[in-house]
């Protein structure tokens, strides 16, 4: 027994490392828009590899061996927003630091969102965490003012110059407003999901920010994180979810909601 262990402990370590890597890759890709394409592609390649091995088809085997480089490029293109976010997280040491707004600012923000909802004023916020949002902030107008319901409702009043676009919240302050966020290209089932919600999904696909949305059409309050939209939440639900995400980040448990309010996956 001891002899076997001595001979094969390296194999055990390798299996363990590979299992962790494969599981992490699965967790990473599972929730992304390219997951189905990736699954289809892998199944096709595995099928072809199996058939070509069994029937000894030399040309297909040769082609499959050389295709791996193109596959790697395809993966980078397919998962570009997700990879950007992961690299940005690593670059910003986000894993080791949290930029958590104080509870008072959250109360102010949620209070303002409810006022905007009651008046049917659309609004979009990105709460900055570890990843720097300076490039996005530069697409808008610098505000750098303490959060207050009056300021927020004024910014998103439809007759003001800054109401169009999103506001960036950084440590209890509105850093800038009227910002243009990246728009998510995910396919969504719900026709009520327009550009504002897509911009919320987009900014959270590419950064670790949490986006909050007030729908102009329905007054619904929503949250987006890591590209996923949690649509039409009750104010208390929104507060709890926000606290959860700000405390635990990606480790926060997935919300229990019914379609299409949670994961607006591919059609
Ligand atoms: N890329 C973007 N970044 C930030 N804000 C955006 C972006 N694109 C659109 N918006 C905002 O969304 C508004 C248009 O929202 P639209 O009606 O298409 O979205 P929606 O998701 O249906 O939301 P609502 O329920 O509020 O109507 C624009 O007036 C603008 O303020």
From TrEMBL:
Query: How does this chain assemble?
Result: Probably a homodimer.
Its biological purpose: Catalyzes the condensation of 2 ATP molecules into cyclic di-AMP (c-di-AMP), a second messenger used to regulate differing processes in different bacteria.
**InterPro entries per UniProt:** C-di-AMP_synthase, CdaA, CdaA_N, DisA, DNA_integrity_DisA_N_sf, DNA_integrity_scan_DisA_N
Organism encoding this protein: Prosthecobacter algae
Give TM regions.
12-29, 36-54, 60-79
The EC designation for this entry is 2.7.7.85
Instruction: List UniProt keywords, sorted A-Z.
Output: ATP-binding, Cell membrane, Membrane, Nucleotide-binding, Nucleotidyltransferase, Transferase, Transmembrane, Transmembrane helix
**What's the protein name?**
Diadenylate cyclase
Every DAC domain range: 80-235
The answer to whether keyword Transit peptide applies is no
The gene designation is cdaA
What is catalysed by this protein?
2 ATP = 3',3'-c-di-AMP + 2 diphosphate
| Record lineage | Bacteria, Pseudomonadati, Verrucomicrobiota, Verrucomicrobiia, Verrucomicrobiales
Tell me if Cytoplasm is a UniProt keyword of this record.
no
PANTHER family annotated for this entry?
Answer: DIADENYLATE CYCLASE
What family is this protein classified in? Belongs to the adenylate cyclase family. DacA/CdaA subfamily.
Which NCBIfam families does this UniProt record tie to the protein? diadenylate cyclase CdaA
